[in-house]
Amino acid sequence: MLSILGVLGYGVLAWLGLKLAVLLLNMRLFPVLKREEPHGPRPAVSLLVPARNEAHNLRETLPGLLRQGVQEILVLDDHSSDATAQVVEEYSRQDARVRLLVGLPKPEGWLGKTWACYQLAQAAQGEVLIFTDADVHWGQGGVQAVLARMEREGAGLVSVYPRQMTHSLAERVILPLIDDVLLCYLPYPLLRTPFPSASAANGQVMAFTRPAYRASGGHAGVRGEVLEDVRLAQKTKAAGQRLALALGGGLVAVRMYRGLGEMVEGLGKNLIEFHGRSRAVLALSYLGHLLAYTLCWPLALFNPLWLGVGVLGLLERLLLGLKTGRPAWEAVLVPLAPLLSTPIYWRSAQGKYTWKGREYSR
């Protein structure tokens, strides 16, 4: 008769096996942006950047935006308390394509980012609207690659998952989990279907044709959504438009968070949304990850099945890194991931959260 430890082990092993199967499929099929030119005439492009207390990031990312050869770069200062506006004005004096917008007060029922993006869309003149976060780094030819993908796929929306730029140990341990969710749970062939429920997107980079943006209802239609990116993707498909996805590869990268404190606040606000807003499901997820990646090693002393669990977890992280361009040695850090993620899970289980100086209730 199987012990409880054995039953748990087979369950976790089956879960990791399914994740690995999806990952292997996505390693083959999930597109990665590459330098290429669209075949048809290049449409007028508006790069749209919502910014709240992003002075430090904009100094690093605006030069890359200017190298994209687009018609306009609009940065909306959403009531920042730092030098965001001054940084944008400096670049605006050097290049007339850069324009600073001053955000209006946020109406009731809107989240800060959706309200900022709505105002940007209202001011934009381009045929293609590319919403990009202030911390996203664009390499030479990045926008061209997005336009080429849009043309090839006949897509109304192209969303890009930038390569994660990491420096601290905590960043190297935790941030690859974002790629894990995408590549180990969401089979790319399923995401290509027209069904709105089979949608994914990343609000860090979302490129719409203007007709597709209008058809989806734009940010006004997702004004109170924490996962506004996924909802926009669903509404875009529901409107009969095609959705295309890609990894950023060497063309689009992001430095999302600087250290564990920022990750707790940033990831903590979204994590429970990915678990159906259920604290019970969130707790089960935490326990599952703890067993699969951390506790498997001491449990292997009592049941060798858990050694297989641990090896499979290491293999998963190794293959994930190969697909996303991460160093192979980082795979050995995977046992630390559930431990360092503990405060993120705890933060996500709370009823309120603070982001960019604003307090929200779930």
UniProtKB/TrEMBL annotation:
Enzyme Commission number(s): 2.4.1.-
SUPFAM superfamilies, sorted: Nucleotide-diphospho-sugar transferases
Keyword Membrane in record: yes
Alphabetic keyword roster: Glycosyltransferase, Membrane, Transferase, Transmembrane, Transmembrane helix
Transmembrane segments: 6-25, 281-307, 327-346
Any one GO molecular-function label of the UniProt entry: glycosyltransferase activity
InterPro entries associated with the record: Glyco_trans_2-like (IPR001173), Nucleotide-diphossugar_trans (IPR029044)
Keyword Transmembrane: yes
Residue intervals of the Glycosyltransferase 2-like domain: 46-159
PANTHER family linked: GLYCOSYLTRANSFERASE, SLR1566 PROTEIN
Name the UniProt record assigns to this protein: 4,4'-diaponeurosporenoate glycosyltransferase
Gene: crtQ
